[in-house]
Amino acid sequence: MSEGATTQSPAAPTEVPPTSPPSIADGMERQLDPRYVSVQRIEGWIAWACLSFVIFSVAGIVALAARPGRVLSLVIFLAAASLSALLAWHGQAWPEKEHRRSAYKVNEAGIEIRSGVYWRRIVNVARTRVQHTDVSQGPVERRFGLATLLIYTAGTDHARVALNGLDHATALRIRDHLLPGSSDDAV
Fold it and tell me: What is the model's pLDDT at position 183?
């Protein structure tokens, strides 16, 4: 190598500081995760299958035990089929209606949960009233990466508040926000 030539060392990669996600307590109203519609539909179909089995079993037992005749047996069967079809429609259509009308908002003071299709319900839970929180997942929720946030408060009305249809990571972030940050607990 000659004296005048300099070697350049490879440029050291610049380190990008890790960015923390924006605070969950920004006061913005958020919809539930859209995957929750699929979870509710699957759970609705499971309930429909179980209830339809019971409905048709009872209809069959009534038709056999009472020996009502062909016309009455047909009426019993049509009533059972109509009820089963109504339950199937409900399991398919209701989750979308409920999803459109459900939302939550987290701010520094606590959480507000809006729900209800016909009878609207707004529940505000102050952080100061939160006793403890749980994040749970059923098997269908786990398959879709969703969770339910359970908030337990002091008092009798709304002592247990559930917020279904959250992404699992979001549920954990809300849980961490609602828990007291300092050790000034009197326990």
Answer: 46
How far is Cα 54 from Cα 42, in angstroms, rounded to an integer? 19
Give the N- to C-terminal CA distance of the chain in Å, as an integer: 73
Please name the residues in contact with 3: beta carbons below 8 A apart, sequence gap of 6 or more.
none
Dist. CA 45–CA 93, nearest whole Å: 11
What's this model's pTM, rounded to 2 decimal places? Answer: 0.74
Tokens 């924006």 sit at which residue?
A: 22
> Looking at the chain, how many residues does it have?
187
Which pLDDT score, from 0 to 100, does residue 18 have?
A: 58
> Can you read off the two tokens belonging to residue 7?
């070697």
Count Cβ atoms below 10 Å from residue 89 Cβ, excluding itself: 12
Tokens of 24: 């969950």
Structure tokens, 146: 């969703």
pLDDT per residue over 80-99, tens digit each? 999 999 999 998 999 999 99
Return the number of other C-beta atoms located less than 10 Å from residue 88's C-beta: 16
Three-state secondary structure along 110-177? EEEEEECCCCCEEEEEEHHHEEEEEEECCHHHHHHCEEEEEEEECCCCCCEEEEEEEEHHHHHHHHHH
Q: What is the distance between the alpha carbons of residues 15 and 120, in angstroms, rounded to a whole number?
A: 50
Residue pointed to by tokens 């002592």 = 159
